Amino acid sequence: MDNAVIACVQGWALGTGFWDPMRKRLPYDSVTVDLSCPDLAVLPADRPVVAVGHSTGVLWLLADRPFPWAGVVSINGFSRFYQGGGFPNGVPARVIGRMRQGLRLNALRVVYDFLARCGVKDGTTDWPTARLDWGLELLMSLDVRGRDFGPMLALAGRDDPIAPLALVRDCFSEIQVMDGGHLLPQTDPAGCASRIRDFVEGL
Q1: Could you report the per-residue pLDDT of 45-104, keeping only the tens digit for each?
Q2: Is 196 inside any structural domain?
Q3: Residue 199, Cβ neighbours under 10 Å: how many?
Q4: Treating both helix axes as pointing N-terminal to C-terminal, what angle do 93-118 and 129-139 enclose, rounded to 10 degrees?
Q5: Percentage helix, strand, coil, to 5, in the chain?
Q6: Range of the domain at 58
């Protein structure tokens, strides 16, 4: 599928520049769909699209199906995040709820603490507070496990502190485990690009 376009959707609180190291290594045209304010006009109307999401961006893609795709790639992603009801390896909803409460007091502090856990130094965000809260609401309410997403590749970080392997394995039937944490497109952009290339070639 040489004419494919890769549509990249970033995770919570991140900017679209998050994808730059990986996009430079892709042998395909690519665009970014900004999860903080999605503009689907960037997507081509006459070429097949492969959706690539990171973290919360994956959950949004899988839940909303905002555009048609020939295949979808999850990087550090999941189809459910919150714990409970037969999903023991998720994150307790009360933890996400505390983050939502914290947004009302000091949104930048909540973002800084989260990004620091991910491994981002001096993290900040351009996301509006209301959109940050929207993202956290997705994390504590959506469960799209078991849906048919079409051809899919799921990449997980062996040492991911946000989406641990046990959580990701409970979401997807098959995953590829990579060395690294929650920022695989930045810490191993060549590895992510190589796996996406192999996936697209197999479509």
Answers
A1: 999 999 999 999 999 999 999 999 999 999 999 999 999 989 999 999 999 999 999 999
A2: yes
A3: 20
A4: 120
A5: 40, 15, 45
A6: 5-80+145-201
Q: What is the DSSP letter of 50?
A: E
Which tens digit of pLDDT belongs to each residue from 101-154? Answer: 999 999 999 999 999 999 998 888 999 999 999 999 999 999 999 999 999 999
Cα separations (Å) of 130 from 11, 79, 104, 137? Answer: 16, 23, 10, 11
Is 118 part of a structural domain of the chain?
no
In our burial notation (b when 16+ CB lie closer than 10 A, e otherwise), range 48-77 reads ebbbbbbbbbbbbbbbeeeeebbbbbbbbb
Closest by alpha carbon to 103, among 118, 91, 114?
A: 114
Task: Return the closest-CA partner of residue 65 out of 132, 144, 153.
Answer: 144
31 DSSP β-pair partners? 7
* Separation between Cα atoms, residue 116 and residue 46, nearest integer Å: 40
N-to-C CA span, the chain: 7
- Report yes or no on 96 lying in a domain: no
| CATH code of the domain covering residue 11 | 3.40.50.1820
Tell me how far apart the alpha carbons of residues 18 and 91 are, in angstroms, rounded to a whole number: 24
Answer whether residue 64 is part of any domain. yes
The one-letter amino acid at 129: T
Q: CA 197, CA 61: separation in Å to the nearest integer?
A: 20
Domain tally for the chain?
1
> Residue with structure tokens 């973290």?
55
